[in-house]
Amino acid sequence: MITLHEEESTWGKMLSEKTVADLLPYSIAVIDKPCGPSSHEVSAWVKRMLNVPKAGHSGTLDPEVSGVLPVLLGEATKAAGFLLKDRKTYIALMKLREAKADAELERVFSRFRGPIFQTPPKKSAVKRVLRTRHVYRLELLENDGQFVLFESEVEAGTYIRKLCYDMGEVLQCGGLMAELRRTVAAGFTESQAHPLQDVSDAVWLYKEKGDEKTLRAMLVPVEQAIALKKVVVSDGAIQPITTGANLAIPGILALDEGIKVDEPVQIVSGKGELVCLAKALLGGEQIRNQKKGMAFDIERVIRTHKSGA
Length: 309
Fold this sequence. Notes:
The protein is of the alpha+beta class.
């Protein structure tokens, strides 16, 4: 990180100082969604359990699909479009009409690695047009007669149900998706996901016993979920940029190296709290060498001056 100025910050709180009440409106709860309910229903249940004014999920899972579902809480919902969305990982069980040998399955899998063409299935909520998606990894895990277990790491928007169907066509026996579980989404892994019952138990401990530890461990601060370069601003710059002004060079204390024009960044306070999401108007070297000028266009305000004071 390049330091332009040094200043002691008094705005907001350090993460170590925050209570659960401080964290809840600016966090993400990573849920292990069960089969049955829709992603919207799960998000609504989490909203009620945690008593936050709003909640929204990132990356919809069909009702019959389980796995990692990040639920953004309160003001963190404003950051939904800035979470990692380019890749997701799934474990799928494909059912074939006839058994195939491992070698034949591997031959077909190899044809579906890399860029593929897909038309979304009829049940999808998007327009059914042919499009290109990338399959980064496709690995055979088990082959048990007509049932084939595989793992896939794919570009967002890839339909595993359609992938199973298309591979079944190439195998000339027909195939369908029998079960599906998402193990990675928005940069969160299966090991970070919590069943709804565990969340409910943690809320009970917090409300009835005053025990914050369990619930606190389930809350991921929004700052830790956004993989964007950081720009640290002075306390004096926070009120203007949260009330309509863009960020000028004099208000910048430090910034990550290599920022390019038009690159999205996160604007944080001296104590590390996410204040805004912005787009660079100047490159990092320009900012470093100039003393004035508008450096970042504020696109989304996460914390207002009042909320951080």
